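Think of the structure tokens as a kind of shorthand, similar to the way a musician reads notation: each symbol stands for something richer, in this case the local conformation of the backbone. In the example below we present two proteins back to back. Begin with the first one, reading the sequence and then the tokens, and try to describe in your own words what changes along the chain.
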Amino acid sequence: MFAFAIYDKNKSRLCLFRDHMGIKPLYYAYKNGFLSFSSELKGLTSLFSVQGVGLEPDPGALEFYAVFGYIPSPYTLYHDIAKLPKSSWLFFDLATKAPPKIFSYSLRDVAVTTRNEFMQLIEERTLEHLASDVPVGVFFSGGTDSSLIASILHKYGINLKAFSIQMRGKEEDAYYFTEISKRLGLHTEMHSFGVKEFDEIYPTVMKNIDEPISDNSIFPTYYLSKKAAEEVKVVLSGEGGDELFLGYPRNLALERIRGKAEGYTLLDALYTHLPFFRGKNFLFERLFMWTRQPVSYYLVHMSPSRGFASSAAWHHAKELIVESGVEPLALDREFYLENNLLKKIDMATSYASIEGRVPLLDRGIVANASRFNQFHLEGGVLKAMLKKILTQYLPPELVYRGKSGFGMDLHQYFKESRYLKQDLERAIAFFTKKGMLLPKHLLQRQDVFIQRSPNYCFSLISLYYAFQNTQKR
């Protein structure tokens, strides 16, 4: 189940549903007694434009974006448009046209109690995601998650075409990728990705973005999706493994200082008011660790605006987390996964006209993963339980090692791409005209700022294009 709408038999009531993890987005707007909805934000902004209805940007959502690098549900760029949260459904009475009501739901599934049972469940649900009347492939990186999916397919004699990408400058993964491919007998199609390929696809990606996202791995993901679409129409992906089974280095630190989410503190005020200086983020990561402030540690670690977010934006983001009741160790699963990673893969695959499926986020796997929380970081090993399961298919020396991922070295791309610098200048001019505050250092010494904060610079470009693509008339 993803996102969909249904009417009752008399067409007097409308219900909108969104899946348990937010794999597919669903936007809606209620205005003047009418409810409109779309799978894309620009679907609604185009409708309002045709009707001559103006839309006002939501300053709060922009503050969230500055800190998180994405806009969390139910917020969007605009006041009058919302995103249906994951695991929820919307009820609208077409007769009375009263404001819609939103309810949350939970899905029941089989419960497992042992690791072997959990491994069997992962196998069963992975195989179920193969159901299709069109060709199916798999994204394979050689990491834990995609290797597990490929290993399950191999065990049951299913030989799908595997599509892989080699990030130029990240050749350290090549050995493990090659060895695992040999052991599983994968028919792998490898594609290299660098500045040349980036420039080839950059215009296509940016002209389609309607919700800003600071995750630059959308580019290699789209490139690989585009190549896969030449041969298949469905691909299996390992997205979700890091968030569900704690695969990020920051999880080890959060585990050591785990506790309830804390509100805005004096140390937060000091961090946001001090001007940027070399080593600022490193210093405050340690300070937030020592003072046991896990949310601030998390935000410093992952925010694209590290060291540049305003005090108001930082306060607003922490307030959202505290009100959500989500413990810091679950922030990646409850916020980052839905609003960043799943949005990224949905955008990348849909732009390439291909369906992306995420077996590890099957409702049964999600429901049971939390039963084994004490094992996910066992022995100080990231994704310890999932890696232990993977050793049932592959030798330990191919399982217990690092992986660099799809992230781009933006320092290089800003230097060599023919697009990024000029688009940053356009973004700066646009936001300056709109009266939106930008770091003084960015306005005064752009090249130095790019060198220090390329991710923040890209986040501004993405936001600029999101406004451009949703305000077309």
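Once you have a description of the first chain, move to the second and do the same.
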Amino acid sequence: MIDNLPRVNDKVFGVTSTVTAGNCLRSSRLKVARKLSNPRIAKIHFHLIRHWFGTMEYHKHPDMHHVRRLLGHKSILNTQMYVNMEKAFFPESSEDFTVKVASNVEEACKLVEVGFEYVTDFDGKKLFRKRK
């Protein structure tokens, strides 16, 4: 839904104040909700986008401490909500990964381009992983 919003300077809200961004989101979501005849779109707000981001970040990197630091939570208990949401949205996801090894920069770039994430170095090689 966010991809359908009008963009300013390659960003949905451009470089602007929080108040202006809020007004832009409000008017854009109402226009899209009317155009698509979907009143649920009108209920999207900034905090919902934060929840979506935290959930997707945990899905990509299943590390609660990483998500906690990223979102600025003081307590890991606040971050637990994103773990629960991720499990509800992606019940089929598992902790199984496809692992690839890169020997040079070109191989590493190709792996990153198709969604692999860097894990560590081992015997002079770079290890990458991606969820199955």
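Compare your description with these statements about the second chain. The radius of gyration is 19 Å.
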